[in-house]
Amino acid sequence: MMSFTLSTVLIIAYNNKSMRDYWLNPLVFLLLALPPPLNAASPSPSPAVPVRFLVPNTAHTLEAQPVLAGIIEEYNRAHPQAPVSLIRRGEEYSSIQELIATELAGSTPELATLEYTEIPAISELNLVKKEYPFTRVSPVLLVNEEALFRVNSREVSKNWPPSWQQLLVVANKLANGSSTRNRAGKYALAIPLQGARGLWIFEALARKPLWQRQAGGLRANRELTESIHAIQKLLDTPHLVRPELSLDRAVQDFLERKTSLLVASIDLLPYVRKNAQFRWKSTPLPCPGQNSPCSLQGGSNLITTSEKPAVQDFLAYWFSPEITGRWSEALGVLPASKMKKAETRSTDPDVIRARSAWVQALPLFFGEASKRLASENVFLQLDRALNQNK
Asked: 14: domain range?
């Protein structure tokens, strides 16, 4: 009402020259200075624009997953206009297939974690703006010290990491011990070779590239034969080794004391530490035919597909000393940026197809005796699979 009355006075004053000369400017000033009517609409806040972060379903141990979620929640409370939205798809360390699918669908996430040697597979898509180390893991051997004590292997365990031959001596003692022979489902050594993580364990034991690019395309590496035969020798001894398990199943067997020696990865140590009800320790993993431990790294990189300011803000937060410290502690590893450079996995622009072929070939190398094929026959099958549709 007040605004309407002043507007009327202003119009009258403007039409009267004398009044316009003396009153117009003060009236305009007064009118502009008044607050808007109570029923005037106030400007609405800008809607939040999330930063999408694609992470694998099984990229991290159970101990690390709530830490990641907590870090994201803290960030979002401080950045409500550009929150980070976690998208969980994929397996093991990588979401590369899901990333490609979202790109084809026109909904590419701004952040994603990929197995770091798989990144050449998307080089032609020009998706990756920048990449940063996210996780790095190394193979380890987990040992049930109480089981070693029962088979009088304390002296060997004190001098670990052992050689591969020393490891086999201990494994055979465990396999022949009464607590193993007389208990159904119990065995001495778990070498979980199933699935994508199992392939990494095999690569770590072999310490050689799985395939090589030659003039005719990709070829399976025949230099792996010695490592393959070293593992095959263990398979037919009762209660000695089980290679057909997934890593998750093998970890549970270790915690349930079904196996006393477990080939695993360093990021599992916090989970085992929390759940083991016996004395245990971890040591570097010995490699067949080698005098030094296996050191092949696995892990993932964090890649960005956008350079918008909200992405840069989150990266600055994630790589701050406090956050990287919390993340590394949850995984039981050093920050990826501080780990020493080590041997890396086989990689190639065709790495996805090549690894898929190798995962399918593992049972032909290490399955039941009746289903195994001669190594050269498996290599020939791999060569065909590695170069199909070429």
From this structure: 2-33
